[in-house]
Amino acid sequence: DRVWYVPDWLSAAEAAAVEAQLAASDESAWTQMSGRRVLECGSVMAGSGRGLLREALPPWLTALSRRLVGDGAFPPMLVPNSVAVNEYAASQGIAPHADGPIYAPRVAIVSLGSPALFYFYSRQPELRSALEWDPDTDTPRHAPDGPPLQALLLQPNSLLLFDGDAFSVHCHAVDAPADGVEVAGEAAPLV
After folding, report:
1. HSE (CB half, 13 Å, CA atoms) of 178?
2. Are strands 132-134 and 159-163 parallel, antiparallel or unpaired?
3. Rounded to two decimals, what is the model's pTM?
4. I need a surface site. Which of 1, 98, 104, 106 has the fewest CB within 10 A?
5. What is residue 191's predicted lDDT score, i.e. its pLDDT?
6. Bridge partners of 9?
7. 171: buried, middle or exposed (CB in 10 Å: 19+, 13-18, 0-12)?
8. What pLDDT is stored for residue 156 in this prediction?
9. 3-class SS at 94?
10. 8 A C-beta contact, residue 73 and residue 5
11. Do residues 70 and 109 lie in contact, with contact meaning Cβ atoms separated by under 8 Å?
């Protein structure tokens, strides 16, 4: 009950502008992970490798953050200041995981380009105390108990928000279907 989906949050022109900014971003700023490419904005790893240092968001992401506040997705005192851009090619996704405290208390996901199937897994009460990094999936290591609880089809230009239990005790994943395969919610109820 702490999940919101907003279709067409971005207009086609706004989405094209965001995609152009991403295409123009410095290639060296992207990190190749297992199953995706990631661009982190708003924070940088501390020189010691332990912890993050805050840095300014680029202007185009600052504008999106302000829009989230203006649209009521975040209160004015919690303007989003950290962004992870995940790029998934065909047959790529991200393993079930929980987001770390840098994204607390609410996550906003803007989908671009093509649809994606996003899964929520049932309550994982021990999840926060048992996180350690899995180098094979480039996500926090753990295996959720059981099949997905729910699947959401994220259409291009849509916005997904979640907080509360959806953030703190459930985990989520982005499906990585095989090339040429359309997934229609066989593993969980499709919303």
Report:
1. 1
2. unpaired
3. 0.82
4. 1
5. 53
6. none
7. buried
8. 92
9. strand
10. no
11. no
Token digits of residue 122: 């049932």
Residue with tokens 């959806």, as numbered in its chain: 166
Query: Six-digit token pair at 36?
Result: 């995706």
167, two tokens: 């953030």
| pLDDT tens digits for range 98-118 | 787 778 789 999 999 888 889
**What is the separation of C-alpha 25 from the centre of its chain, rounded to a whole number of angstroms?**
19
Q: How far apart are CA 20 and CA 36, in angstroms?
A: 19
Q: Of 188, 141, 149, give the one whose Cα is nearest residue 170.
A: 149
- Nearest of 117, 103, 40, 101 to residue 74 by alpha carbon: 103
Which residue in 99, 93, 87 sits closest to 35, CA to CA? 93
The letter for the amino acid at 27 is E
The span from the CA of 8 to the CA of 156, in Å, is 7
**Residues for the chain: how many in total?**
191
